[in-house]
Amino acid sequence: MRAIILVGGEGTRLRPLTLDTPKQMLEVAGMTMLERVVGRLAFFGVTEVVLSLGYRPDVFLSSYPDGYISDVKISYAVEPEPLDTAGAIRFAARQAQIEETMIVVNGDVLSDIPVDHLLELHREQGGLATIALVPVEDPSAFGVVPTDDDGRVTAFIEKPVPGTAPTNFINAGTYVIDPAVLDMIASDRRVSIEKEIFPRLVEERQLFAKGYGCYWIDAGTPKTFLEASLDIVAGKFSSPLPFTFESDGQGNWSCPHSLIEGDVLPYSYIGHDTSVEAGSVIEASVVSDGARIEQGARIERSVILPGAQVHKEAIVANSIIGQNAVIPVGAAILDGSVISRRASIEQGSTIRGKRVPE
Q: Is the pTM of this model over 0.85?
């Protein structure tokens, strides 16, 4: 089984973390987002994936020089210019010479959607494309997909006005597509699968959908990136932690080679070669490889990405500290703030709900 993963976007929703790194290459509890997506596809039988690349393709190419992730063969399709979602799918499929039914997933979505079941259902229903759906509380930020009793999609409503959606089941960013759909996608311009191709398939009665109640999250915003990281540590998403890590039996996971002298409270993750000094407190947080948490610092419901330093008496709460970023003595980073390595933070300062640099 082959799949296309859409990873070409610039990750603007996660800036400033993505100024240097594509969002799918950011670590989510010890593994890149891409590795977690590929790992779940592999679990359901995918043996080869094509990465549809646009922004910073060099990062992907240099990260996997042997062409494999989780025993899954990786190939690359680098867009010459932004082609939008449908255009990217067509370009990647043509580059990889895919002529059979294919799986397509968004690279910033972490989920347990059983793509093997979706593929089987697609073949039974006989349409040209089948979409996986998931329920959400507020569907206004997504593509809403009502269906009839046979699973045939009756409309495709992209980002409806709040309170007007006919269902709370949304497009989960996981599709099964027959190669005939590629012929519907123009090759000389940008084409959106959500705004152009899916509505056309609805008109032709060739689009089906199936709802799943499994774990699903669009991890492409600071809030959801943080939530996904903590969910993995808490065991809410079935993608595993690194196999070398040990549990303390109280919901915490750590590398046995890290120096942990401070207090670690559930549910937390301490990465490889990490230093947590005496007098510091880590609570329900992810502290990634090579990070340093100094004496008296406190980390609460936050993500500290690899190589970051949180100096003495600093506080980080409900926030994300980027790779190799430095939080100075006595600083407080609070309320959904995102700090990248490019940031310049003053000692003892307080930052609430901001992205630095903006």
A: yes
Whole-number Å distance between alpha carbons of 78 and 98: 16
Q: What is the mean pLDDT of residues 235-250?
A: 81
Q: Which of 125, 153, 158, 119 is nearest to 141 (CA)?
A: 158
Catalytic residue, from 23, 73, 159, 312: name it.
159
Active site residue 312: no
Q: Do residues 21 and 67 make contact, with C-beta atoms less than 8 angstroms apart? A: no
Domain housing 172: 2-218
Residues 267 and 328 in one domain: yes
| One domain, residues 176 and 278 | no
At 139, is the pLDDT very low, low, confident or very high (cuts 50, 70, 90)?
Answer: confident
The answer for residues whose C-beta is within 8 angstroms of residue 332's C-beta and 6 or more apart is 314, 315, 316, 317, 349, 350, 351
Question: For the domain that residue 18 is a member of, what is the CATH number?
Answer: 3.90.550.10
CA 177 to chain centroid: 22
Residue 243 CB: number of other CB atoms within 10 A? 5
For the segment 39-61, what is each residue's pLDDT rounded down to a tens digit?
999 999 999 999 999 889 899 99
Closest CA to 274 of 48, 99, 29, 44: 29
CA angle 300/136/25 to nearest 5° reads 55
